[in-house]
């Protein structure tokens, strides 16, 4: 555990890619079971569902004064680090095995977690405690991608990283077949590719100025960019499974898909909520996400279906090397042969020029899609975000001017900076908050805002600072809904700071009534 | 204690403690730039603080100087002033002010832990305590500086093709790091940024063991392989640091407790070495001072104010103008 903690600690502080690779290799050179655990952790294939941030807070409140913890957390901006530092014990020197530790935690019963997990945390040094919490909550954020881990392994054993990539999704903890092959003790692991999640093909945002001059409209096809979640459906006579974009198996969350699809194919599509293939808002879809089990009631209320974009395999045949327009024919064939209420096709937009497509992008289907996808007809199905094949063209965001009201310190790499902003519009002579944003500004603007906030604080509420009402943001947002949970009666989707309006006086900002009228909220 | 205001100004006799702007009479706790400024009429401080001010700002940085020994009383009308060691840096002092049997202590910046580069902190009992709170959060529990220095020494041993540049404040921290290295038997020459030279010479003259040092010069890059170099934090990102071969960037500071902060600043080897008290030391000092009235300034006050109130002590934050609320020297 000590070694693995040091590894993570060093990785986080090392800017150089080569040094990171070397650190990883030095760790993986040690031939014991711990490296399998390390690999699982670094590639985020190991996490403990029952240890969540809220649970950790509960545990730490049993150890230290709640207010003192909250002050500290606000300052540090990272839950794992705050807990690891503030925990009353710091036991250096005691050595523990990473693998034993994890196996012991797996054995903890849910009912005993408060006492048992606290006991484990008390037995560790600060550094190890930080590591353990990061492992448990997932999302290490140490600047090491899965790809970098694979690269380190490949280089260490003179293999090509693509070879590892190919079999990666078919490997399972403790990866014995992988390590044996790397050491040339056995041949490359045989993987049943049909059961494998295939990394998805992703699009790059289009650069309106450059790309449209360069690209020939007739070589591309366009589809709507539906606002659901991207999924991969694997269907065969033996089994059906559904994967998220990151390769997580989400079959149990959407049983109606699993039960009702037929045929033999791998389909790429968008999961949407709706009846008779009429999608409803993302808000509705959110009711269905992240559930392990789904009641019949919920299935009735928020039925889901897949709008298919693409097909990767058809009756055992690998179509990925074919061009998109050829795959489309297979997709249509599959859909026709296996009619269900759970799959329809993403329709293709007919257009001749980019100007013509603009209209489709901006108004079609109002809030149910985020814009259009532009795909090269002659594109193979290539995993990852390769340049030059698929583009996404998002609708222009909605814009509104609002006044900065409150600020809070950010988290992660922006901890210590006042980078979380609450902004509002007028309600008579007062301001009422309409949203909160953490992004969109440049690093330089952040420094200016941070300084302004420190020098113009009029009031403090715990970690929140109220500031002089002087700064106006032009806020961009994807959508706005009525909301009974907010004082203003509105909730924005994905608000971000578009720019700072240094030029505008605060009395020109809209009132909440005007705001609702402009964005058609009843 | 009504005689002093939130700017540490005693109106009655026109005396300021650590004023930011030029004043008639200024009592200076120590030589750091956020406490010691240029241009006062009369500076009252320890001899070493006065020496340091003269090194930094020139002999004429004040019209008149009065050097006080630790424990020596100095009176202005019915106010008695006494300086006590603060253990922060060479020459640093706490200020005891006595008036009509009321004892008020301004700690200035202080640390309780041992430090061979200055006189160790002396606890002074009082009725009112004005304490600093640079590390006023329970997450700050400084480790033994010897262990931190060992990390550096180990890294120098392992990374034979690199050099180590340590960011450390020019006054106090730099010399403390040098002294800690000597305590751990690192006897090689330590290379320093030019801005540290005069202060290092002064520390040597004052018989502080910082060992052999040499100013970085435009030698061949390869010369610095395996060497330890100390520079002010501002120089780490400057072009200045590009002259070195494969530098490993280190920083000696209490802020290095928080990994995210180290990462933000591009520090590869954080060394948690602080010249301020940590949370437990702050609490301990408050308790042992027996003061019933605690004013908190200079740092992260909120948690400390909350803690004092819970202990039934009268407590409030004291915001001193011109000081930012964190990351100060």
Blueprint (SSEs and pairs):
The complex is a heterodimer of chains A (522) and B (329).
Chain A (H helix, E strand, L loop, with lengths): L1 H12 L3 H12 L5 H9 L10 H11 L2 H11 L2 H8 L11 H10 L5 H10 L3 H12 L8 H11 L4 H8 L7 H7 L21 E2 L2 H7 L5 E7 L2 E7 L4 E5 L10 H6 L4 E11 L2 E2 L2 H5 L9 H6 L2 E11 L2 E2 L5 H14 L5 E3 L2 E2 L4 H10 L5 E8 L13 E5 L3 E12 L8 E10 L2 E8 L5 H13 L1 E5 L2 E4 L4 E6 L1 E4 L7 E4 L2 E5 L11 H7 L4
Parallel strand pairs in A: 1-12, 7-9
Antiparallel strand pairs in A: 2-10, 2-11, 3-4, 3-5, 5-6, 5-7, 7-8, 11-12, 13-14, 13-17, 13-18, 14-15, 16-17, 18-21, 19-20
Helix pairs in contact in A: 1-2, 1-9, 2-10, 5-6, 6-9
Chain B lengths: L8 E2 L4 E3 L7 E3 L12 E7 H11 L4 E7 L4 E4 L2 E7 L7 E7 L2 E5 L21 E6 L11 H14 L4 E5 L5 H11 L6 E3 L4 H9 L7 E3 L12 E4 L1 H4 L10 E6 L6 H6 L4 E3 L7 H11 L3 E7 L1 H10 L3 E4 L12
Parallel strand pairs in B: 2-3, 3-4, 4-5, 9-10, 10-17, 11-14, 11-15, 12-13, 12-14, 15-16, 17-18
Antiparallel strand pairs in B: 1-2, 6-7, 7-8, 8-9
Helix pairs in contact in B: 2-3
Features:
heterodimer, A: 522 residues, D-amino Acid Aminotransferase, Chain A, domain 1, OB fold (Dihydrolipoamide Acetyltransferase, E2P), seven-stranded mixed β-sheet, B: 329 residues, alpha/beta, Metallo-beta-lactamase, Chain A, Rossmann fold, 2 domains, 18 strands, 23% helix, 26% strand
Summarize the structure.
The complex is a heterodimer of chains A (522) and B (329). With 522 residues, chain A is an alpha+beta fold.
